[in-house]
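Board notes (copied after class):
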Amino acid sequence: MPRFMSPMIRRSPVTDKLDEESRAIGPNAILPTNQESAQSSIEQNDEPETPPDIRISEGGYKQIRDESLVLLSQGISHRLEHSPDGPFQIFVDLDDQKRARFQIRLYHRENPPREPTEPLPLKASLQPIWVLLVPAAVTLVQFSGFIPGIEGEGLSDADKVLNGQWWRCITALTLHGDSRHLGGNLLTGYLVLSMMSYRISLAKVVPFLAVSSALANFCVAATVQSNFRSLGFSTFVFAAIGALSVMEFRLMPKESHGLLRRFAPLCGAASLATFVGLGEHADILAHLYGFIAGLLCGFIPSKKSLRWGAPVAASDIFWVIAYYAIFAIGWAFAHQ
């Protein structure tokens, strides 16, 4: 029957044969001479020793658990230990070493291990440009004065929003108070969207972020209800921060560093949102609602597409058009 021991239990040490012989010697026994002792020692050395345990594998808990099940299914006796350095280890007898290694190699050949989820690279990406083109272009038109009264037509006014002018929740995302306001939103948005683009194509996410940002502006109007005006792309940026944190949370392995380690992306994003979202003229409610709405958007992509990457496909053009259509519809209603 195969021998399988718990990782936390060590086998009892083999009793020293010399100790057994010494206990068998009585007080009146005649001790052997030096020559007889040497000859007896040579005879004992000729006897085969118990083969020591051979370590054949070392790794994390999940890897060693799977390999242990493979050996157990093949009837190969083995022992598990948790090394003081951290990793788990598998030990087998010398006679089973070759067969055990072959079974483990065969298992990994048929079930190649997946690469761990690497941290997001901080590299320049061109994908955020077409996303940020909307607020940048509309704000430049706003600053140029080419269309008089565009700011009054598009900003989010709580009274007017609650009285049926819902499109202001959309158009307000494309307007800004000054150049510093615009530059800060574009820079922060570019960094966040760049990191998100290395997980998934932005076309599959940004239409949902635009809708959730508009809903966040509506929630602000419903909360304040009167005498409140707001504008700016920051609601979208905070929605993107929330979505990115949930994506990273979903990709954190459960078996590494404990369950609480998985909440590090969420805690980090919440801290970043708090640090960036507070200011003298910051719309704190819009930032808060945008961040919460973005958390929900982070569950839209499948986990498989996030882990292995979803390449840009021809169907993404539909989502790009949908993103632009959202703002086009908003401004169409604003000018009617």
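Comment from the instructor: The first helix runs from residue 17 to 24. The two ends are 83 Å apart (CA to CA).
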